[in-house]
Write a structure and sequence with these properties.
It comes from Porphyromonas uenonis 60-3. InterPro entries: Homeodomain-like_sf, HTH_AraC. Keywords: DNA-binding, Transcription, Transcription regulation. Pfam families: HTH_18 (PF12833). By secondary structure, the protein is α+β, with helices and mostly antiparallel strands. It has 2 domains: 169 residues, Regulatory protein AraC (Jelly Rolls); 114 residues, Homeodomain-like (Arc Repressor Mutant, subunit A, Orthogonal Bundle), CATH 1.10.10.60. Helices cover 45% and strands 16% of the residues. The protein is built from 13 helices and 9 strands. The strands form 2 sheets. A 5-stranded antiparallel beta sheet has the order 1-8-3-6-9. Strands 2-7-4-5 form a 4-stranded antiparallel beta sheet, with no helix packed on it. A hairpin with a 2-residue loop joins strand 4 and strand 5. It is globular and about 50 Å long.
Length: 294
Amino acid sequence: MALFDPPEHLSCHHYATHANSGWLRVDAADQSTYRGITEFHAILFCTRGSVRLAIADELWELHEGQMKFIPRGTSMTAIFSGDGELLDAYFDVVDFICDKISLQQLQQLRQEVAYAPEPLEVRGAIHSLLGTLAIYLNDQALCAYLHELKIKELFWNLRAYYSREELAAFLWPILGESKFHNDVISAFTCNARVSELAERVYMSTSAFYKRFREEFGTSPEQWIRMQSNKQILFLIQDYDLSIGEIASQLSFNSQSTFSRYCSKNFGLSPSNLRRTLQEGTSSEELLLRSSDND
């Protein structure tokens, strides 16, 4: 059944607007791969078939009825089986909307639980929530308010059907992160200057240097370079993208600027870097080579 009076929905300024939380439905009929929204945290739900997830340097198989947490800023590619389907719940802030539990309380369990990167089985009313969302998304119900409410409903259900220990293990990658840490991750762009990053988090460059070393244990320059190199190695393996498209996506001013960066950091042009990966050299080995150039 379609939405009643679609023009009225379309005329609302909350319809299909960019928001800090929401839901996306992706399946093999739409596209064979999906890269997610890296500026937000996400929980991926496999609602049909199976999906292979390449997350940073790890591979996971997500089956129907399972979910996987993806921290903000993580390079991720989902590769669909013939009938695979995902619901992507993306959000900026973890809020259980419950006085009895908070992310801060889970942080206290970080030392007591082991990180469990394996997909978690969906339980309880989350099944019904996902079914309702599939109907909304199929009917193009793209109201930002509705999507925000459904994210809150998801977190209420996580609180209701999982123990604190399970949630701490599931959300382990972001437990203990400070606001500064999250702000830096959100503000990062490939090959950014330290002064640009400091400005984006509303700090002087000198104060940013001091706080960054305390938080990340390395210099901003080294961290920016390593994160930039990881993003390049991730996108260069997407053979549907041209070198020029990759340079544009990574905010380089021109393809020639991108080529100079790759030659300086990897000792290879972008085309040769892609060929080297195709011939079997791993991303990890190339990252080690780039760090040797420090």
